[in-house]
Design brief:
The protein has about 450 residues and is α/β, with parallel strands linked by helices. The chain is about 40% helix and about 15% strand. The longest helix has 19 residues. It is globular.
Length: about 450
Amino acid sequence: MKILFCTHDLSFADHISISYLSAVAKQSGHLTYFCTLEKEIFSPRDLLTQVKEIKPDIVAYSINIVGFKRAVDLNKKAKLIHKFISILGGPQATFSPNTFSESGMDVYAIGEGEWVFRDFLKRVDAGESYDDLDNLITPSGCNQVRNLITDIDAIPFPDRDLILSNSCLGQVPKKTFYATRGCPFGCTYCANNYLRRLYKGKGRYVRRFGVERILREIELVKSKYRMDFVKFGDDVFVMRADDWLEEFTEKYAERIGVPFNCFLRIDAIDDNVLQLLKRAGCFSVHLSVDSTSRHVREKIFQRKMRTENITEKLKQVNSYGINTWVNYMLAAPESTLQDDLNTIEMSRQGKVTYAAYSITVPTRGTDLHKYCIDKRYLDPSYDGDLSGTMEKSVLSCFSEKEKEVRLNIYLLGPLLVRIPHFLYQIGMFFVLNTPPNRFYRAIRDRYYKYSIENKIFSVRD
């Protein structure tokens, strides 16, 4: 069979889920193709053109909330060109299964997809019904999810060629890899708390690939494509200096030798972890503080950290010559304006390389969304549009002035963290006393681009 994989966009990272599903399909002898919903700089192959040329048996969409309406519209148009079975997976299907009836799709696939996709293809190829397969939603109903994959090393290597060879991403200097699946924590704003409930009693949620497995994948990509920098996109790359990290450090430095970035928990940082990461070639780390308020972190976000000495932890990372990207979520429910202003001073004292801000968006399906609905901070119809992370807060518990100041922190805060003290004082005056504007956004965008290319990912040509 011919299977056309489609996603809403690419940005600067290929969608690893599609690569895994393509590998499963190829393992079963099927042909796979790739496109995006629209022609764009990253991939010139749009859906309607591909359907007309390829005449696929199956179109498999990996879609989030941002691309859902566009996928629904184009899927209807594509079916007028050629008859195929449409299956939609990804965040939209998993977190909003109630949208199946309005989607016009033949099938939704929820949760972890490799083995259900394998079984789905087998049924379709044999002309048999797939209505009873776990993880699928069809017009006949919604089935339960199957157990999580215990041995993730048994999953075939992701078909990275599918996207890297069919878009300009093959020549993008940064490549992204994943060493784990799942997160051991349950922050209320994160998709993981929803997924942990979905898979309760269905197996161990947090799993890790073997060192040899992940290194072979990196070597394979490096042998074919440009790779100046590696990003590990795991929710938490490591929690301690264990045997896995020691093996990784030794082998990565010897066999890969490319600087990398990874995500860490602040309360998992110690000298042993930092020494090993630095030896392996770690250039920068992503860390999340979320809020300077302990109440907001622990009660609202359920981000319970073992350490309260956050500033010293940030300095400790800096002392190893590892750059830091630190996340803060502004305008969180029950946070004060001073809590958010304190993020700038905390970052200055902690010698943070880049303070990354976002406006809190309670995404549908998360505990934070339910909390905001229950407290009447949010209109029940709000679906968690992620574009809101760059705009004024949608929560009703803040005044218009407070929303403007917080948006100014988002726009100007990263630069204020790094400039001399006398300029910092002038900048704070503008944050507190002027409305957000296009000039501030231009400053933010340029400083963000400079920091990403030079301080966090080191990918500038």
